[in-house]
């Protein structure tokens, strides 16, 4: 991997490591959701059962900071996935996230498929040295009384063409990953609820000085409605590739106040505060996330 992408890749991988840390803090659950003969798993609304996401690759640091796992299933059956993104530029500031509900029978079917894909084994990292600068797919599973983490670099890309790669294990993981993208086609009928918009209760906001507008894409500024102003919002990020950036989390009444503005903003919107303009990067937090 190119040296220029090392730091953002490490940041993204640290985000997945943080998910593992949160699982460790919560424990592996009491298994009360397993039912008779089922696979034990945590049952709380903020307890992660299974998460799959892609990190790293040849992407900008800002993309790394706002990446969201493509699949996050929680103990109460809440499932959060990425929705369709509008193909316009500049795109909306907020990502499209979908929330639905999976019943216990559906969770058990997913866990059984995860077991068949090899996710219940020891932690593993599957490399693929024939391709550079693509992403790593990370599977985090909390079930059966243990937490398992499996990484696969360049998963699903040019299978069978790289000497020395564990193609059998990679193929199983790729098949499972694909199945997670179409649950209704194979889970028991009625186990997947209707899709709705994910109503996040907290959002992580990265603040940077505004770099200036493209004269061909003039944007109307939005006045930052909260106190303190953006110059003192959150804490310094201390990232070598995003100098002078700050990060903070907004929730509760402050989120209610600022959310309408976030929803109408796009990725190039300047935010005015204290006589200066700023750029915001927005990352809605998942149920088990509460900080930068």
Structure write-up:
The chain is α+β, with helices and mostly antiparallel strands and 292 residues long. It has 2 domains: 3-196, no CATH class; 201-284, no CATH class. The protein is built from 5 helices and 14 strands. It has helices spanning 6-26, 61-66, 104-116, 167-180, 252-264; strands at 48-55, 71-74, 78-82, 97-101, 124-126, 136-143, 146-153, 196-197, 202-209, 222-223, 235-236, 246-251, 271-273, 276-284. An 8-stranded mixed β-sheet has the order 5-7-6-1-2-3-4-8, with helices on both faces. Strands 10-13-14-9-12-11 form a 6-stranded mixed β-sheet. Strand 2 and strand 3 form a beta hairpin. Residues 1-31 have low confidence and may be disordered.
Task: From the structure above, extract its key features.
disordered N terminus; alpha+beta; 25% strand; six-stranded mixed sheet; eight-stranded mixed sheet; 2 domains; 292 residues
Write the layout of secondary structure elements.
Elements: H1 6-26, E1 48-55, H2 61-66, E2 71-74, E3 78-82, E4 97-101, H3 104-116, E5 124-126, E6 136-143, E7 146-153, H4 167-180, E8 196-197, E9 202-209, E10 222-223, E11 235-236, E12 246-251, H5 252-264, E13 271-273, E14 276-284
**What is the CA-based Rg, rounded?**
20 Å
Report on the biggest sheet: 8 strands, mixed
Report the average pLDDT across residues: 86
Span from first to last CA? 26 Å
Order of helices and strands: HEHEEEHEEEHEEEEEHEE
Overall geometry = globular
**Sheet with the most strands: spatial strand order:** 5-7-6-1-2-3-4-8
> In percent, how helical is the residue content?
10-25%
What is the number of strand segments? 14
Strand content: 25-35%
In terms of per-residue confidence, which ranges show pLDDT below 50 for 5 or more consecutive residues?
A: 1-31
**Total number of helices:** 5
Count of discrete structural domains? 2
Specify the structural class: alpha+beta
